[in-house]
Design a protein that fits this description.
The protein is α/β, with parallel strands linked by helices. 45% of the residues lie in helices and 13% in strands. The chain is globular and about 55 Å long.
Length: 307
């Protein structure tokens, strides 16, 4: 499944992945649930959800801390046809002004239990959580697991770093294996899955039910197909350029349509380019990122990443 990534996995990017790269499931960026207003979810966030859910399941990820507001938001989304809800328990950049959210909630198990209960009560489709292994302690998941089991979540996405670690160090998938062995709930492993080979090893060695891939799927959109064996495991540098040229070229018209104006679309597509890590492509990607108009962007793309 394609991971939720704020600022990146908007409806245009998700649509392209579903049409061409076929993850089994896509997530929205996190959707902030407002406890202070009766609306609960901002209008622009709602409009970003109304598309492709017929092609593959769309999971809407909520972030918030108020049980009642979260339940209201889930009801509102379900009334709009959304069937799958996920709760963010991993974001390390909580907004403290409106109370602890995301990964911070791992420090508030009592509140968390109320939130899980409230959401489970109203979610008629799947209700899942996405969490870190712990706040500061990589073993905290052991005390969180009974909470997830009691509230009968449908699956757990585990990113086995602590919240305090943010993105430092590496995701320790021995923890994913340990969690999968400790519960009958499906555990989805997430974090640092950057190659189809690593993905396959994880699937065979850890007993997890599935994989969620974020940055690795931006670096190589075909990773889902490579894992399944419907695309080659490896490609030569010329093919790599062609694949990226196609990916970026397909994304551009959708971004132009989604974002107001060329400037905004350019800014947004450059955010995607930042996640392509190939050392030998950085010079050409740098030139692409320095373009200042749509025409220049396209000309440079066709010149350096011909398809
Ligand atoms: C730019 C960016 C934005 C992210 N936004 C979210 C988000 O909205 N919700 C969430 O649960 N995780 C978010 N994450 C975390 C990813 O979903 C994922 O857990 C993390 O990147 C580890 O997986 P990966 O190594 O496959 O990227 C974000 C990560 C990045 C890099």
């Amino acid at each position: 499944m394609l991971a939720p990534m704020q600022g990146l996995t908007n409806s245009a990017l998700r649509r392209l992945y579903l049409q061409k790269y076929q993850p089994d499931l896509v997530f929205t960026e996190f959707v902030r649930v407002q406890a202070q207003t009766r609306k609960r979810v901002a209008k622009n966030e709602l409009s970003d959800m109304q598309d492709h859910s017929a092609v593959a399941p769309l999971v809407v990820q909520l972030i918030g801390n108020d049980p009642e507001a979260l339940a209201d938001a889930a009801l509102l989304l379900q009334a709009q046809g959304i069937q799958h809800i996920n709760l963010n328990l991993g974001c390390p950049y909580g907004r403290m002004t409106t109370g602890a959210t995301g990964g911070e909630l791992l420090r508030q198990p009592q509140r968390l239990a109320l939130m899980l209960k409230a959401l489970r009560r109203v979610c008629r489709g799947s209700f899942s959580v996405k969490c870190r292994a712990g706040y500061e302690d990589l073993l905290q998941w052991q005390s969180l697991l009974p909470l997830f089991e009691e509230s009968a979540v449908d699956f757990i996405v585990l990113h086995p770093r602590t919240v305090a670690q943010r993105y430092n160090g590496t995701a320790d998938h021995r923890i994913s294996a340990a969690m999968a062995a400790a519960t009958s709930l499906p555990v989805i492993a997430n974090g640092d899955i950057n190659s189809p080979q690593a993905a396959r090893t994880l699937l065979t060695r850890t007993g997890v039910a599935g994989l969620m891939i974020g940055r690795g799927a931006l670096a190589d959109p075909m990773i889902f197909q490579r894992i399944r064996g419907t695309a080659p495991l490896e490609v030569d540098p010329a093919q790599r350029r062609r694949d990226l040229g196609l990916f970026i070229g397909d994304l551009w018209p959708d971004y132009l349509q989604k974002f107001c104006g060329e400037r905004q679309a350019l800014m947004k597509i450059k955010d995607v380019l930042n996640f392509i890590p190939d050392v030998d492509l950085q010079r050409d990607l740098g030139k692409l990122k320095r373009t200042t108009s749509g025409a220049a962007f396209l000309a440079r793309l066709q010149h350096t990443f011909p398809v």
